[in-house]
């Protein structure tokens, strides 16, 4: 790699910055839209190409496992070879895999291409924040850019069920994959033209043992949580996966504490603000994403709603999330990240508690109001979960920090889906949904407590 690339200066031209931000936001939007839209389309896929419910759930899981387990490795790779390079290759791979998913003739091939999507998505997620961190050297401009990035994710999260419902209802489930292709092509062109390569850091070793143990440990953990949630925690496969992750993760941290060039320098966790931000990301994903999936299942399975009606149920959630991110978050930015985290998470906690009134289909207005408050609160505090982590870490470790943050978030989502799925199935449907919403509220309360304790100076 040339000295010019290694010492690449941060981008300063505002138009180039805006186009670079557009490129990474489109990539981020695409991978989140795809995941949330698929949940709505699963019944249609079952009718079209067959497969049991357990097999269909693996269309989600086979994406989540490589995504969660490879994020840390992708973040380190981005710091070593350049975030732009990793982003471009990953975006191209995700776009191609989406096209292959759309034309898949059977469930097996669809699952295989979903796995490729998950691998490519693992390269996209950490590089988006890393590119933003180095494209915007000014802290205020960077905070605004991360807010836009967060709003993009929020819009994708909530547009997925709505868009997925509309596309599935009127065009067919394959359209939720086809729509990724033009988005991906546009993002590739913008990245190629306007995203400059980020600076890289040298290392004598890629810490192969640490990489292997980290990937294996995270993959076994996420797979074990998924299987435990669907098969039951006494199932031999679920137990084997969860037990298998323990020595792998213990070995990972032992190696990282001893090697000269660790893939994950444990010293970064000595910063309480960074550690608190990582924990907040976990709780955020557990609460917001876990709640959405649980309610999507409940509304379709127990209220008997169609995919379209289920998607429309989340419209207030979507609108207020977007409003909270694009309007309130920016209006209140001067109050600081801690204030945004505290007020937003408190609002979301109140909304989750309101959702505990869930019952038969007649309770939909109360539940919809509760989800709307959750969306509003998440829109206010969500960008600060990411911004706080990136604000306290050295920019030469931007890819690593983003990888750690997104690993925490994806693990939180996997545990949230498993835990809330257990709550929904272990008790009667209504009682389980209420227990699940209490868990969601507890996550948002934890964010308030951590933020007030460790992030009050940010």
From TrEMBL:
It comes from the Bacteria. It is found in: Cell membrane. Pfam families: MFS_1. GO terms for cellular component: plasma membrane. It is a multi-pass membrane protein. The chain crosses the membrane at residues 16-33, 53-74, 86-105, 111-133, 145-164, 170-192, 212-230, 236-255, 276-299, 311-332, 339-359, 371-393, 436-455. InterPro entries: MFS (IPR011701), MFS_dom (IPR020846), MFS_trans_sf (IPR036259). Keywords: Membrane, Transmembrane, Transmembrane helix, Transport. SUPFAM superfamilies: MFS general substrate transporter. PROSITE patterns: MFS. GO terms for molecular function: transmembrane transporter activity. Residues 20-458 form the Major facilitator superfamily (MFS) profile domain. This is Putative drug resistance efflux protein.
